[in-house]
Each structure stands twice: as C-alpha cells, then as structure tokens.
Amino acid sequence: MAIVLCWVCLIGGAAVSSAALTESARTQTQPSDPLPNGAGKPIVLRACTACHTLTVITTRRASQAEWAKTVDDMVNRGADLSDDDIDKVIDYLSTNFKPIDSDSKQPAANTPPPRK
Fold first, then answer.
1. Which CATH superfamily is domain 33-100 in?
2. For the residues 7-26, what does the mean pLDDT come to?
3. Which residues of 88-104 are buried (b: 16+ CB within 10 A; e: fewer)?
C-alpha cells in the first residue's frame, strides 16, 4: 500500500512540476507588456492569449484585411469574441501591427531623388 501511495505522489508531483515549468517558461519568454495601449488591448490579452503567446501577435505584421481574416479564422476555431470585440481587435491589430512600410510610400526604383 505504501509503495502505491508513494508512486501516486511521485506521478502527481511530476505532473505539477511539469505544468509549473511550462507556465514559467511561457511567461519568462515574453516581455512584461509588449502590447501598445489601445481600446482593443484588454480584449487581445483576454481572448488571444487564451491559446497564443503574445509573440505570435507582436511578431506578425498584416494589413487590416489580413487581420480581419485571421480574427475571423480564430473566432471559427472558438475564440470568445462578440461582434463589437471583433471590430475592436481588428482595429487594434491593424493599427499597431501593420506592415512596416505601410506608413511611408516607397519611391519607384527608377524615380530620381527630389530636388533641393
């Protein structure tokens, strides 16, 4: 009986230790607050991080249409978002995680530099 009880304690302890290590590794690999402030931030923190690390979000750059498709895909997979939340999340992500060059127009390759 004592051997069985010890075996159960060891297995239970290993499961708890494994879960604690996984959560510890997950939280240590992310900056404390990598998301910019905005109306959609609390929703992203609640809904998106239920399945993803913030790195999945913060390393992606996408247009509004691409973010809309991604959010729609996530809702179809079970993300808990109301229609209002969906709009806020798409606006938040497309404002803060848009393609890098979307703020400035790149001149065509053969365009001469502007005169001074």
1. Cytochrome c-like domain (1.10.760.10)
2. 41
3. bbbbbbbebbbeeeeee
| 0.70 surpassed by pTM | no
DSSP 56-91: HHHT----HHHHHHHHHHHHHTT----HHHHHHHHH
- Is pLDDT above 60 for 66? yes
- Give, as one character, the DSSP assignment of residue 93: H
What does the block give as tokens for 105?
């127009």
* Token pair for 80: 């808990």
Query: Residue 102's pLDDT is what?
Result: 52
